[in-house]
Design a protein that fits this description.
Layout: E1 12-18, E2 23-29, H1 35-53, E3 60-64, H2 75-88, E4 92-96, H3 106-118, H4 127-135, E5 144-150, H5 162-166, E6 170-172, H6 185-195, E7 201-204
Parallel strand pairs: 2-5, 3-4
Antiparallel strand pairs: 1-2, 4-7, 6-7
C-alpha cells in the first residue's frame, strides 16, 4: 500500500487504487509512515473521490498488504479504521494479502509501477515536483491519479493497549480469516498456526466511540493536484 521514494528520506507516498474506476489517490506525507497516515490517506480518497463515485455505498472493502503501517498485526491500524468507520457511518471490511504475496496486490501493478515509470530519470528535487509527477501519471487504459501533499504530523511509536483494542467493534471475517488459501495441506497447517490469533480478514463496525477514539480534524482538502504535464 505504501511506496517510498529512494531519493531521500522524507516523502512517503501512500496510495489508494480503485479497481473498478481505474483511478488512484496518493497522499505524499513528510513526517512518518504510520497507521494514522495510512487511514488518513483512505479518508482523503473517500472525501475527494470515493464518496462522489459511490454515493450509495453501505460498506467499504479494503485489500492491503500484510505488513507495514497497515499490517494485520498493527493495533493502531484497526483503531484508526474504527474512527473512519464511525465518521462514514458504515462498516469497513479489510482483507490482507498473506506474507510473501504482496506482488499480487493490484495497486503495485496498476498504480505505483506507472508512477515509477513516469518519474524515471527526473530529479525529485521538491515535494511539489513529486506531487506533480504523481498526478500527471496516466496510462493507455485510462488511469487517472490525484495527488496531494500531507503536511500533518504522524508521530511514530504510538502504542495501543489491549483495553483500547477491546473497545473497538472488531470482528473476524469468516471468509479466509486464517489465511489458509494454499492448496498444500502442510502449507495450510502452517498458515493456520501462524494466523490463528491474527486473522487476515476482519471488519470494524460503527459504534458510539469513546472520547479517545474521536478525531478532531482532517488533513484532507480540495486542493489536490490535478493531472498536468510532467516538467
Amino acid at each position: 500500500m505504501t511506496f517510498q521514494s529512494l531519493i531521500w528520506a522524507g516523502p512517503f507516498p501512500m496510495g489508494v487504487y480503485d479497481l473498478a474506476a481505474n483511478t488512484g489517490w496518493v497522499s505524499v506525507g513528510i513526517d512518518h509512515d504510520t497507521s494514522s497516515f495510512a487511514v488518513e490517506t483512505i479518508r482523503c480518497w473517500w472525501d475527494s473521490m470515493g464518496s462522489e463515485r459511490y454515493p450509495n455505498a453501505e460498506r467499504l472493502f479494503i485489500t492491503a498488504d500484510g505488513g507495514g503501517s497497515n499490517g494485520f498485526r498493527v493495533r493502531l491500524w484497526k483503531v484508526e479504521l474504527q474512527k473512519l468507520s464511525d465518521e462514514l457511518g458504515m462498516p469497513i471490511s479489510v482483507s490482507h494479502f498473506p506474507p510473501g504475496t504482496s506482488k499480487w496486490n493490484k495497486i503495485e501493478h496498476r498504480l505505483f509501477s506507472f508512477i515509477s515509470q513516469n518519474w524515471r530519470g527526473k530529479p525529485l528535487i521538491s515535494h511539489e515536483v513529486i506531487v506533480n509527477l504523481i498526478a500527471s501519471t496516466t496510462t493507455e487504459t485510462g488511469l487517472r491519479v490525484r495527488a496531494q501533499l500531507d503536511t500533518a504530523k504522524y508521530p511514530a511509536g504510538r502504542t495501543v493497549s489491549k483495553q483500547e483494542l477491546a473497545e473497538i467493534d472488531l470482528g473476524r471475517d469468516s471468509f479466509h480469516a486464517n489465511g489458509t488459501t494454499q492448496s498444500s495441506r502442510e502449507r495450510k497447517k502452517s498458515l493456520h498456526k501462524l494466523f490463528r490469533d491474527r486473522p487476515l480478514a476482519f471488519e470494524v463496525s460503527r459504534l458510539s466511540a469513546p472520547n479517545w477514539l474521536r478525531r478532531d480534524s482532517s488533513t484532507c482538502s480540495s486542493n489536490w493536484r490535478a493531472p498536468t504535464k510532467s516538467p
